[in-house]
Predict the structure.
Amino acid sequence: MMQTEITYICNACGEDIVIPLDPSQGSEQQFVEDCPVCCRPHVIHIQIDPHGEATAWAEPEQDYD
C-alpha cells in the first residue's frame, strides 16, 4: 500500500506534524511550510527510496540563504 502521509518533527515546538505525501513530485523533495502549531517556517525535506519508503525531516528556514 502506498504511503499517503508522512510525519516530521517541528524543530521549534517539538510537535509531530503530519503532511500529505505526493510521490509524483519526485524521490527528493524540498519545500517551505509553516508549522501548524507554532507558525514558524521550516524547510521540509522528503526522500523516497526505490522501495517506496519515505523519510521526512525539517530544518528552520532561517538556516537557508
User: Anything to note?
Assistant: Strands lie at 5-9, 16-20, 28-34, 41-48, 54-60. The mean pLDDT is 91. The first strand starts at residue 5 and ends at 9.
